[in-house]
TrEMBL record:
Official protein name in the record: Pyrroline-5-carboxylate reductase
InterPro entries: 6-PGluconate_DH-like_C_sf (IPR008927), NAD(P)-bd_dom_sf (IPR036291), P5C_Rdtase_cat_N (IPR028939), P5CR_dimer (IPR029036), Pyrroline-COOH_reductase (IPR000304)
Record's catalysed reaction(s): L-proline + NADP(+) = (S)-1-pyrroline-5-carboxylate + NADPH + 2 H(+); L-proline + NAD(+) = (S)-1-pyrroline-5-carboxylate + NADH + 2 H(+)
Chief subcellular location: cytoplasm
Taxonomic path: Bacteria, Bacillati, Actinomycetota, Actinomycetes, Micrococcales
Residues at which NADP(+) binds: L15, G16, T17, G18, S19, M20, A83, V84, K85, P86
Length: 284
């Protein structure tokens, strides 16, 4: 990270240290990011806490050995990241509410738990912002959607944006769009991996070994993504046209894919994901 993008954040408490929380945590440990007052984490397992305790600037606590771990973690924290499983959120919020300092910013990464739920269980002098990162956060390539709460300020939103930009790109959207965002960027990596699976299977069916297929397909996906990233101002349709010679082999293949109704298929797939997100939010 260059000096132009150096970021300073207040003390942070992570409640729950699953894969997503760890990915975000890793973004805070790179050069150029300063967390004043340090980072505290909590989880149930003492064994996991021991692993995290080796990270620089991290104090790891376990509820298994310290029943007050969550309260100790949030005391005087400027930012509290709630990263436990959604079903655990209400009880956790009730537990920590009395220990939160006025002005604390609470960030949710718990899928499906609304801002309204958070705000109803936390003091009025605490701000809430709901976030939805995706799994490429592990390699610093996340796309994170963030949505303001009714009590959060522009400064709170800027702080949340700065935190999640340490692991990738950030989109600020109304909470009403957050579930739709999850069907694109949240579930999106799975769609890409599924396409890679199918293309590798097609390569194997044409006589290549699994290793050869993996080299071809994964290298092609990575190369195409990096070419798109490097082609500023050029949209994917134009890049596709540059690969597709008139009356050539690629044109014939693209015609088959177009005839298969891929646009409609992706619309139906993301609509199905959105319907399931609404079911989960309703508790079904």
């Amino acid at each position: 990270m260059s000096s132009e993008s150096d970021v300073t954040l207040p003390s942070i408490a992570f409640l729950g240290t699953g894969s997503m929380a760890r990915a975000v945590l890793s973004g805070l440990l790179v050069p150029g990011v300063t967390v004043e007052g340090g980072i505290r984490t909590t989880n149930r397992s003492a064994e996991k806490a021991t692993e995290l305790a080796d990270l620089p600037g991290v104090t790891a606590l376990a509820t298994e050995t310290d029943p007050d771990a969550n309260l100790r973690a949030v005391a005087d924290a400027g930012i509290v990241v709630v990263a436990v499983k959604p079903a655990m959120v209400p009880d956790l919020l009730r537990e920590i509410a009395p220990a939160l300092a006025p002005g604390t910013l609470v960030l949710s990464v718990a899928a499906g738990v609304t801002v309204a739920t958070f705000e109803s269980l936390l003091p009025e002098n605490v701000s809430v912002i709901r976030t939805m990162p995706n799994t490429p956060a592990v390699v610093g390539r996340a796309v994170t959607g963030i949505s303001a709460g009714t009590r959060s300020s522009d400064a709170d939103l800027a702080l949340a944006t700065a935190l999640f930009e340490t692991v990738g790109d950030v989109l600020v959207v109304p909470e009403s769009q957050l579930d739709a965002l999850s069907t694109i960027s949240g579930s999106g990596p799975a769609y890409v991996f599924f396409l890679i699976e199918q293309l590798e299977a097609a390569a194997v069916a044409k006589g290549f070994t699994a290793e050869e297929a993996a080299t071809m397909v994964r290298g092609t996906f990575r190369g195409a993504s990096e070419l798109l990233a490097a082609s500023e101002g050029v949209d994917p349709a134009e890049l596709r046209r540059r690969v597709t010679s008139p009356k050539g082999t690629t044109e014939r293949a693209i015609a088959v894919l177009a005839d298969a109704g891929l646009e409609e298929t992706f619309t139906r797939a993301t609509d199905a994901a959105l319907a399931r997100a609404k079911e989960l939010a309703a508790g079904s």
